[in-house]
Amino acid sequence: MSNPVLVCALRGIDAYKALSGALKGLTQCKERLSTTGSLPQAVMALTPEVTFRQAILFFTEADFVTVTLQEHTYHSFQSLYFCFSVGESWRCRAESLFTYLHIGAQVLCTVLLIKPGVWSQNLSRILRNLHLEKFTVVGMKHIHLEPAIALGLLSSEVKQDPAALGAHCTYLTSGTVLVLCLQRPNAVKKLMDLLGPEDPKLADALDPCLWRAQYGTNTVHNGFYGSKSYQMAVRDMKLFFPEGLCCAECRTLEEEEV
User: Fold this and answer.
1) Neighbour tally for 37: CB within 10 Å
2) pLDDT at residue 209 is higher than 60
3) Among 225, 207, 10, 254, which Cα is nearest to 118's?
4) What distance in Å separates the CA atoms of residue 149 and residue 169, rounded to the nearest whole number?
5) Where are the domains of the chain?
6) Which family does it belong to (predicted)?
7) Which residues are CB-neighbours of 169 under 8 A, at least 6 positions away?
8) Residues with Cβ within 8 Å of residue 230, at least 6 apart in sequence
């Protein structure tokens, strides 16, 4: 009680899990480097309810301001800052932490691409499953991918393997694909959770109900591409739906000018 403490309020995707992992790593590092036990101790709130109670105890609404970065500088983690400077490429907006906690998850958009041969045979079933998972389809088109666009959808790991790169590009450009823009709270993570790992065999081992386990046969013919992050979702929306979307306007779309 004789020493001061630093109290921080952090906002981010999977914040509790991420912060817990970071603190665990800090503790392990401290145990290796310190023999005096004098390094700072860290304690975190474990649930939204506890977070809310502690935030009321330590802060007022005027203490919190969130900074939202423009396109290409938007990060998965956004911290709540007490003071900051705003550069020319930044937009800022005041927001109440308490209002944010009450509102809950924001409505976001993400992109699902159903690969050749999969959507034509399973479209009704896939659309029904999307409806059951509370997704709203706000954009849809079937197109033939150009090689350059197909290449842009592949991970850096695939691009490092010439054989895998050729197989993926050949398959993605072998027929028409169906591209869906989907909207719901926490859309990006929810879609990734439904698809599962890119290897259908691994997906099947984790859960046979994962979509890649059901519709895929190997890492190339795995049924789906989905935006893996918010940044990639914005990129994919602008790439596949430059004409706009038919969804109701939401704050994230306005911020990214989609």
Assistant:
1) 8
2) yes
3) 225
4) 9
5) 1-30+41-63+92-104, 107-241
6) Belongs to the NDK family.
7) 147, 150, 151, 154
8) 13, 74, 76, 108, 188
- Whole-angstrom Cα distance, residue 233 to residue 250? 15
- Give the residue from 254, 215, 214 showing the smallest Cα distance to 234: 254
pTM of the prediction?
Answer: 0.64
Structure tokens at 89: 């490429």
Tell me the CATH architecture of domain 107-241. 2-Layer Sandwich (3.30)
CA distances from 123 to 105, 126, 174, 177 (A): 28, 5, 18, 11
What phi, psi does 84 have (nearest 5°)? -165, 165
Q: Six-digit token pair at 143? A: 């197109």
70's tokens: 């423009």
Quickly state the pLDDT bin for 77 (edges 50, 70, 90).
very low
- Residues 82-108 have pLDDT tens digits of 333 333 333 444 455 556 555 566 788
Letter for the amino acid at 121?
Q
Handedness of CA 136, 210, 168, 173 (dihedral sign): negative
Most confident of 22-36, 44-58, 98-112, 175-189: 175-189
Q: How many Cα atoms sit within 13 Å of 199 on the Cβ side?
A: 6
